């Protein structure tokens, strides 16, 4: 298992005005799966190509187990990459595609055949080595692409949105397969995705990138529940933002004062945030109460989503669908102190 | 797009029409060859007769005889067209790759310079080229003629390859690199198989351009390098219809043979970028 370290990586493409990646530093522990999450153009694919050696950084270093690999060409870095598209070579059979990495290393044909069979079994497609790529479905193609990457026993596995072109059912299946194999084989893995749900589901840690900058590097729970900034909270679907300021363990706003469970990391002008599902509707708590008016209610199956007007603020709440509120009805809101989070106001 | 307007264009042609078109193509290609074949075996063939009055092998015997110079000219034509094809491929493939795959400063200018020999007839500048070649000792040499044939030939190769590479997904190469393939292995196992149909078609163009070149060969070769088109002109002017017809058949043969050999690539060429559309 290989530890991956990115140190102050910076990349500016020729002719571009702004760098695609600025000063990115990440430590990935051996066997860890780290998701690079962000909107398109945030630098996540650039990062992957820098690690693979397909791009040379302008500054900074890529280290495998503490050793710089910048001078190593991609074919000797010991990485393997799975792309958005399966990219199976159409002039080769499925088996030849899977065995490609061993063939270019000069392995004996008999050993290649044995390993190809093993790997196809591993991705749950036994016995299809003789088929042509055109005879496979989209999901099968992507599994073959995964087998082709794993056959070289890479030190670092790079996944570039490998599920984004599959439909929902297949995507869930592929995610399970990849997560299971990654843990079983213990391969240090970087997963590029723009899908926060996918990152939360699969990653040990998530690096959230925006316009080439690292916004936060944390566990899924840390990122979701303790965002470091308003931008992180927004990216992960935060809806409720209450402006005000911090005074010790209290947050003062136009809607009144809120008790906080712990002393927040910032003081002074700040923004209070709470997840829609953490807002408690109906019951009258002793503290942190608000009065509001339901302006819209949407049925989501398991839950209801409400838009609630509280003073000058529009809040969003997710609540059990059993006893719905109707638009226009008043509602009591409680903001449990342990679910509140304060971020610096960065606008 | 008007509703219902488009599908009719996409509908498969009925088999009868297809067979008629195929037959028309075959007849169109073969019909001009029939009188040539007849002439080449004719001893006397005067106007109103449908077939020659008397048959003879004279023309064919003459072609293979040393005094006709046909066999050495055939050899030189093949060597010349072969060398031109090889060099045009070596220049045109990388040039086409650069034009088709990369955006770079001055790209439009490079594109125009590559197209220039197709717009300005090489014949017009060949006299200027000849003066330069005389100075460098290239006039009247095989190498000199090879180089001047490259002027009209290379643009075709570069343009064909540019369109092929424009359809080629570079991620295939990235993928192969990360899987451990050295650059030479990437070319041999990934890129070359993908661009091969286009490459073969381009090479055929180039071969035929060189094969049928008359003026450039004459000016730069100075009559020292005798190729088939030059002999063909000479015989055509001499008025010996039988020998001219036989030589014409020899001249056409390589083109037809090559076309037959690569026919399967022609269909694949438009999709040549092809590693499948995905």
Q: How many discrete domains of chain B?
A: 1
Low-confidence stretches of chain B: 1-10, 269-278
CATH fold call of the largest domain in chain A: Rossmann fold
Fourth-level CATH superfamily of the largest domain in chain A: P-loop containing nucleotide triphosphate hydrolases
CATH topology of chain B: MetI-like fold
Q: What's the helical proportion of residues of chain B? A: over 70%
Order of helices and strands of chain B: HHHEEHHHHHHHHHH
Question: How would you describe what is shown here?
Answer:
The complex is a heterodimer of chains A (347) and B (278). Chain A is of the alpha+beta class. Chain A folds into 2 domains: 4-225, P-loop containing nucleotide triphosphate hydrolases (Rossmann fold, 3-Layer(aba) Sandwich); 239-344, Nucleic acid-binding proteins (OB fold (Dihydrolipoamide Acetyltransferase, E2P), Beta Barrel). Chain A has helices spanning 44-52, 94-98, 100-103, 109-122, 138-150, 168-185, 196-202, 220-225, 230-235; strands spanning 4-11, 21-28, 33-37, 59-64, 67-68, 79-82, 156-160, 188-193, 205-210, 213-218, 240-247, 250-253, 256-259, 268-274, 280-281, 289-299, 303-310, 313-320, 330-334, 341-344. Chain B is built from 13 helices and 2 strands. Chain B has a two-stranded antiparallel ribbon. Chain B is globular and about 70 Å long. Chain A binds chain B through residues 49, 52-54, 73-77, 79-81, 83, 85, 87, 89-91, 100-101, 103-105, 134, 148-149, 152, 158, and chain B through 169, 171-172, 174-182, 185, 189-190, 193-194, 274-276, 278.
Could you give a short description of this structure?
The complex is a heterodimer of chains A (347) and B (278). Chain A is 24% helix and 34% strand.
